[in-house]
Design goal:
about 450 residues; alpha+beta; six-stranded mixed sheet; four-stranded antiparallel sheet; 15 helices
Length: about 450
């Protein structure tokens, strides 16, 4: 006889104590980017270690050059699952925009139901606690966990994860599992859970065009002297054609067409591009012609200018030809695009468009390849079915316009696929004042993980 109904009943009856446990973690000011909160980050790691040990995990806080990692292992049998989350949070500034102290968690009534209000409520403490509470329910009701579960909590996700890759490489044998579970994602809408199966990668570069050896008077030198701002503008203006396609040589190498099955599923989402763009004062999709707005976000690569500067930008006017001008450009990547190849193509493009008397210098950012996950694998189907049993609408497979680097690292370093399941909502205000997590997301999130663990146990 299945234990699932009894475990779900326990989750419902234990909700108030679960909320109070979450509140304890939310009160810890684990802001990873500010050295003033280093002790708080360690306190959050220690709190999680203690909680994991009460659940039967053998857990410990592992030192890194930055904030500690939390690693725990259960003695369960069956499929080996590695669950990832992060306990660090973003700074709370500007503090005066919070309607409630950010580290004094509370339940608030809103027009859309009850919410948990606190920094980290959604990103990511509330999310990771949904999984721990699911484990707690299984342990309480059955005396054991439904699978062989390992835990990996990071303390630097909100500050660039500088210790993550070295830690994964140094501990690869210990951390490798059959499958990773990642909770740092969200729902499609309040009633529809989502499982992202593709994430765009990233390459970024800053370039500076150097012309004359000093700024020049535009009345004396305007005309014969090269203007670096004009050179930068010319380069950036040639980066796209009239249909929105990127003109770099080889840019689309490795870009795969969306499968008809996935395209059909996305069409059922009834994504409203007019509403999406209208909410930020726009009206017309500006990406590649022939692709829907949703396809442009999730499955197509981009080249975007993120900043441009040069010359005099202060108050008033100054007739000057600047000695140099700069721009920052980033590329969102899909499929098998290679970040280093994209940046080299861009540098070759700049060289080809560089006039006489100009030189160029670069500052590059480490890139990350796109991640594509095998959504047709049995584990994905089982997870989708488990989520669909809990929520009003069936779970859907989605894409991701941004990146979740740890998913790529798990694949590249540990040779392990990830299933991403989270219960954040679009209006949770993560990274912003008044962050919240719907109480329904917390409650049904716990129930969802109970169902997923039951589905993946063998």
């Amino acid at each position: 006889m299945s234990n699932l109904p009894a475990v779900l009943d326990h989750v419902d009856g234990d909700l108030e104590p679960a909320i109070q446990r979450l509140f304890e973690l939310l009160r810890i000011k684990s802001i990873s980017t500010d050295p003033a909160f280093a002790k708080d980050c360690r306190a959050a790691a220690d709190w999680l270690v203690a909680d994991l040990n009460t659940l039967g995990f053998t857990a410990a806080s592992r030192d890194t050059p930055g904030h500690p990692m939390v690693v725990g292992h259960s003695s369960g049998s069956g499929k080996h699952l590695l669950f990832y989350g992060h306990y660090d949070v973003q700074p709370v500034d500007p503090l005066d925009l919070w309607t409630h102290p950010p580290f004094e968690p509370a339940i608030e009534d809103t027009a859309h139901g009850k919410v948990i209000r606190a920094r980290g409520a959604s990103d990511d403490k509330g999310q990771l606690m949904t999984f721990l509470e699911a484990c707690r329910a299984w342990k309480t009701v059955t005396g054991t966990l439904p699978a062989n579960i390992s835990i990996f909590f990071e303390g630097e996700e909100e500050s660039g994860s500088p210790s993550l890759v070295p830690f994964l490489k140094a501990n690869a044998a210990e951390l490798k599992a059959d499958l990773a579970l990642v909770c740092d994602t969200g729902m499609w809408n309040a009633d529809t859970p989502a499982i992202p199966t593709m994430l765009r990668g990233l390459a970024a570069i800053e370039f500076t065009i150097n012309g004359p050896n000093i700024d020049l008077h535009s009345g004396i030198y305007g005309g014969p002297a090269i203007n670096p701002i004009r050179v930068v503008a010319n380069i950036l203006g040639r980066l796209h054609d009239k249909n929105g396609r990127v003109t770099l040589a080889g840019f689309y190498n490795g870009v795969k067409d969306l499968t008809p099955k996935m395209k059909a599923q996305w069409q059922t989402l009834n994504f409203d591009a007019d509403e999406f763009l209208g909410s930020v004062g726009l009206s017309v999709p500006a990406g590649e012609a022939g692709y829907s707005a949703l396809e442009q976000i999730w499955s197509r690569p981009t080249a975007e200018v993120n900043g441009i500067w040069g010359g005099y930008t202060g108050t008033g006017f100054k007739g000057v030809l600047p000695a140099k001008a700069s721009a920052k450009v980033s590329f969102r990547l899909v499929g098998d695009q290679v970040p280093s190849a994209i940046l080299q193509s861009f540098k070759d493009f700049i060289t080809a468009n560089l006039p006489a008397d100009c030189t160029v210098t670069y500052i590059e950012k480490n890139g990350a390849r796109a991640t594509s996950l095998p959504y047709d694998a049995p584990e994905f189907a089982l997870t989708r079915e488990a989520l669909s049993q809990e929520w009003a609408n069936p779970a859907i497979f989605t894409g991701g316009g941004g990146s979740i680097p740890v998913v790529g690292h798990f694949l590249d370093i540990l040779g392990m696929n990830s299933i991403m399941v989270g219960f954040a909502q679009h209006d949770d205000a993560i990274h912003s004042p008044n962050e919240k997590y719907n109480l329904s997301s917390f409650h049904k999130g716990i129930r969802s993980w109970v169902r997923i663990l039951d589905a993946l146990r063998d």
